[in-house]
């Protein structure tokens, strides 16, 4: 009787962590998507909302961390239950970073507002953002099901984001070379593109954490989280 | 007798975690410093060493995480002992990220090798790197002493890194505008400068974790981790 009571209280605590992570995920997604929308439409009010929402996400991460510690101390879980809790802490950390990246993009809205974002570059950013948002939405759905296969599938999809990011990186360099007056704006857009690419990396991290929760191991093989733009040289090769 | 045996085994495990973190810190520092040296001296062999060392740091983070989990499960520590272990996990995470940032800088060495790094920009990067390395060395020393006052002092020093980074950001923009042939090189240097600035942020995170380990609370006041370059507009203001 006492045991089932404890088990059930533990399950309640796990459910609480899972629910809070899902809420964090929803907010992080919205912040990341809104930051790119604010950038493209020069919407400083929306950017300001993203910036101020970041404190909610930070507080949620702290709350999950503290709740997780209390749960470990009170329930003394072993093996897979402990992995669930450690996994929740890690995922909350990744989602908090997604919010930070959205906030960093939002803070650049003021700097590019006057010149605006050229249409072709806006399309590239929107496409990159859409891919990253899909990764994030999907990985949060997979977290709910704890499917190892689906987590691995998401992890492998990060290649596409990296290749779209590298194209956009080249396009931004070309843009600056052709019209040096766009250098400041394009520099901010380069950092925004990098922010979005890194959101994809955090989705990959979350996929790896799901794998770890389910199996107790790290996924095999090289992490498909390579930023290929680092080797783009002055010759454009 | 049994209790003192358990306490002593727990202390041994804590010592192990602290020692491994100190080793991780040494390697992360070296990678970060070497990556900037490799960049400035176009030393691709040194860059390659930084890139390959990253797997050691990744493995160390995993080892600390796994050891920490085993310790929590076996010893069921409460309050401050639990914070020690959670803190070790967080700090290992920050050091792993420092290594990633060094690796990202190292991967850009090939891209800027042919053009080289202009002398005035190299000086700026070296200065920024020196400040970030000092923060990291000092915060790791403070971790050994668990001094809350010293942790807070380091946290406040991050402002200086941010202001040096913002100056370098402006200088790089000016450089590109004056000579558009340097756009590709300067873009990579912008990302390298940002990498170094973020190493300073991780030192700040570690300082906050030390505060948390010692007190069980988060430090008060706004985080002094602001990247002021985000608002640098096309007018250079």
Automatic annotation (TrEMBL), chains A, B:
Keywords: Cytoplasm, Phosphate transport, Transport
Residues annotated as domain PhoU: 21-109, 126-209
Main location: cytoplasm
Keyword Cytoplasm: yes
An example Gene Ontology biological process: negative regulation of phosphate metabolic process
A cellular component term, taken from the record's GO annotations: cytoplasm
Places the protein is found: Cytoplasm
Signal peptide: none
InterPro entries on file: PhoU, PhoU-like_sf, PhoU_dom
Top-level taxon in the UniProt lineage: Bacteria
Its job: Plays a role in the regulation of phosphate uptake.
Assembly description: Homodimer.
Protein family: Belongs to the PhoU family.
Name the UniProt record assigns to this protein: Phosphate-specific transport system accessory protein PhoU
